[in-house]
């Protein structure tokens, strides 16, 4: 594999290209008119304009991307995350054109893209799942009877949904039929597929996901867990590895379950198996993401691997040269997604010009970044600027380093979620590890952020005054 095209933009495009360069592989960037001056364009060995700014006129144009790949004799295409990364048709198009899709086979994408097909495939492997139905509901009165036996509250989920889309909580029996009808019509409109199923609603879950890697020789390993419970409207904001609540036994049990899920769909490449963990530490299979995830760096750091390097090696047909018993957790890693959003204004996108944009540097700090000072933040794409990752021997060290790195991260011209990261890191519930997927709803408000920033400013001022007075003491001239 001498040349790969990265069918993506922003931080992940640069991140993938960095590993390709490390491996001596040439890189091709594709870009839209809005990304003409984006760093991933200049970072690549070759770059091709593929269309106008809107994603469906550029980064989602599979045919156009294949055409560019063929014209430039590309051997492999890395899709990153989002865009075409979980598009089975695009994976098939690559296969048909003898271009290696650096990801799973289209079959695995299809199976795991349907929650019901995923449940069907996984059922044979005796993986714990939330009590519920595993067929699409066709008879609502019958479904209501099942809901009553499960016990309210229940969740109605769209089979073609995912990541929180197409989910409805039903608190009581009287709401069931109306909610069911709405869920079906929403699923038809959103996904073109009205198949829905029901599950017992797990009240205060943690979102724990296991990183897996599988090669084409039957080897499947897990690279431990990531805690992704700090989410806002199903968008992860803070992720970490390992999770504070997993015991070694539970970690091994969930890791083996994740490996079985990968085997259930003949998985190849990097994938993530999502679980819910309830308050009694029971875990339940949720879904499998058939792509490299945004938060993969925290797993790379604690497991000392380069997941993109492993993806490329697997895509080249190489057998994994890592044995499960070789893998050990080393330290703790924390990731904050730096979004161009205003946490004091309901996290609304904050587009504009990066007048100042300087990254923190230092031991234990990694920034996977997609922007540079002087750039405009385009309105057309996901507003994530970068991922700020800190790591240390302990969780406390990673947290303290995160607070310092955020303070050193200089951004002017737009608002970002950096202050939200400081709020989370200073919050007792987070520091103690006592949180679940409702953390943001439970603890966050603009006022709380404001108070936290005020308190932060006061402490900084007191430190400055103390330092000044100490300096004065040292400077005091001797009495003559
Ligand atoms: C659930 C659940 C509770 N009970 N299923 C969210 C998106 C997708 N990964 C599945 N998700 C959930 N499924 C049952 N039976 C809780 C989540 C969930 C969640 C729900 C509401 C708000 C935030 C959430 C974050 C992670 C997981």
From TrEMBL:
The keyword DNA-binding does not apply. Keywords: ATP-binding, Biotin, Ligase, Magnesium, Nucleotide-binding. Pfam families: Biotin_carb_C, Biotin_carb_N, CPSase_L_D2. GO terms for molecular function: biotin carboxylase activity. Signal peptide: none annotated. It is an enzyme of class 6 (ligase). It comes from the Bacteria. Residues 1-445 form the Biotin carboxylation domain. InterPro entries: Acetyl_CoA_COase_biotin_COase, ATP-grasp, BC-like_N, Biotin_carboxylase_complex, Biotin_carboxylation_dom, Biotin_COase_C, CPAse_ATP-bd, PreATP-grasp_dom_sf. Residues 119-316 form the ATP-grasp domain. This is Acetyl-CoA carboxylase biotin carboxylase subunit. The gene is accC.
């Amino acid at each position: 594999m001498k040349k790969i095209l990265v069918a993506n933009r922003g931080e992940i495009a640069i991140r993938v290209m960095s590993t390709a360069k490390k491996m001596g592989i040439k890189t091709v960037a594709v870009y839209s008119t809005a990304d003409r001056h984006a760093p991933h364009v200049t970072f690549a060995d070759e770059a091709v304009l593929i269309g106008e700014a809107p994603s469906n006129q550029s980064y989602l144009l599979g045919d156009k991307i294949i055409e560019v790949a063929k014209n430039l004799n590309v051997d492999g295409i890395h899709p990153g995350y989002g865009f075409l990364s979980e598009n089975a048709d695009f994976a098939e198009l690559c296969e048909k054109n003898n271009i290696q899709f650096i990801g799973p086979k289209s079959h695995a994408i299809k199976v795991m893209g349907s929650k019901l097909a995923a449940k069907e495939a996984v059922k044979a492997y005796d993986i714990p799942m939330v009590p519920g139905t595993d067929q699409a509901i066709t008879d609502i009165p019958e479904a209501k009877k099942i809901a009553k036996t499960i016990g309210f509250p229940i969740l109605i989920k769209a089979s073609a949904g995912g990541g929180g889309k197409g989910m409805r909580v039903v608190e009581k029996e009287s709401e069931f039929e109306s909610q069911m009808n709405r869920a079906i019509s929403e699923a038809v409109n959103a996904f073109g597929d009205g198949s829905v199923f029901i599950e017992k609603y797990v009240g205060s879950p943690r979102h724990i996901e296991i990183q897996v890697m599988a090669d084409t020789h039957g080897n499947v390993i897990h690279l431990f867990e990531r805690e992704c419970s700090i989410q806002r409207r199903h968008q992860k904001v803070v992720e970490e590895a390992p999770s504070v609540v997993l015991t070694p036994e539970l970690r091994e049990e969930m890791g083996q379950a994740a490996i079985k899920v990968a085997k259930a769909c003949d998985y190849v490449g990097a994938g993530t198996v999502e679980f819910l963990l309830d308050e009694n530490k029971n875990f339940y299979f949720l879904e499998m993401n058939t792509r490299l995830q945004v938060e993969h760096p925290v797993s790379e750091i604690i497991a000392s691997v380069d997941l993109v390097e492993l993806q490329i090696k697997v895509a080249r047909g190489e057998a994994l040269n890592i044995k499960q018993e070789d893998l050990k957790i080393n330290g703790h890693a924390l990731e904050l997604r730096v979004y161009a959003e205003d946490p004091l204004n309901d996290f609304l996108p904050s587009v504009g010009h990066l007048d100042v944009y300087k990254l923190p540097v230092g031991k234990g700090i990694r920034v996977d970044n997609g922007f540079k000072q002087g750039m405009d933040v385009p309105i057309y794409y996901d507003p994530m600027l970068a991922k700020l990752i800190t790591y240390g021997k302990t969780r406390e060290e990673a947290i303290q380093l995160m607070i310092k790195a955020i303070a050193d991260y200089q951004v002017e011209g737009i608002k970002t979620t950096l202050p939200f990261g400081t709020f989370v890191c200073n919050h007792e519930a987070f520091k103690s590890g006592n949180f679940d997927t409702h953390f943001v709803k439970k603890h966050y408000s603009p006022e709380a952020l404001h108070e936290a920033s005020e308190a932060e400013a006061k402490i900084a001022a007191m430190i400055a005054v103390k330092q000044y007075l100490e300096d004065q003491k040292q400077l005091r001239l001797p009495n003559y």
